[in-house]
Amino acid sequence: MSSPSPGKRIKIQSYKHNGQLHREWDSTTILKGSKTIMIGANDRTRVTESDGRTWMTREPAICYFHTRYWFNVIGMLRSDGVHYYCNISSPFIYEDDMIKYIDYDLDVKVFPDMTYKLLDEDEYNIHRQQMNYPHVLDRILYNNVDILVRWIHQRKGPFAPDFIDQWYERYLTYR
Fold it and tell me: What is a GO molecular function of this protein (predicted)?
């Protein structure tokens, strides 16, 4: 898998397990691209939902994707601190100038004080039945929720002190 150069603008697409497009972010600036990690940033980018509705993101965000973990992390810079939205998802792939992944509904919301909340288990359970997720997938996803929670507690990866701020400073050099 090739990786984009820093400064390149790409799209991000999320899909559902059945292959249906779920959501697309119009423009994200790559800050780091490698075979295993992608870090990007966007601010006030247009998002298109599967039903055609569009909306704009409200604040700068740093996006963290990894090929070895079944989650991605978005750190949103708000006036009261960094808020994180973590999607439990397939590892990303990069193709056709896009980051692509499968969104598995489960989300972890992390607040500036590093408290967190697991969201959307009801939606996950509905889709798990509708799309016949195999038992092994269910185990992989919940194991990755556990890994993500450990990262939060350990302040690892995108949760490390200053991680989001440092990447945001880099993003500003491309604007």
Answer: nucleoside diphosphate phosphatase activity
43 is in an annotated binding site: no
Domain count, the chain: 1
* 103 belongs to a structural domain: yes
Q: What is the pLDDT of residues 8-59, one digit of tens each?
A: 999 999 999 999 999 999 999 999 999 999 999 999 999 999 999 999 999 9
Q: Is residue 2, in this structure, part of any structural domain at all?
A: no
Q: Is residue 131 part of a domain?
A: yes
Give the C-alpha separation, 107 to 85, whole Å. Answer: 7
List pLDDT tens digits, range 142-163: 999 999 999 999 999 999 999 9
State yes or no: 107 annotated in a binding site.
yes
Name the percent of the chain in helix, strand, coil, to the closest 5.
25, 45, 30
CA 50 – CA 24 distance, rounded (Å): 8
Consult the annotation and say whether 105 binds a ligand: yes
- The parent domain of residue 52 ranges over 8-173
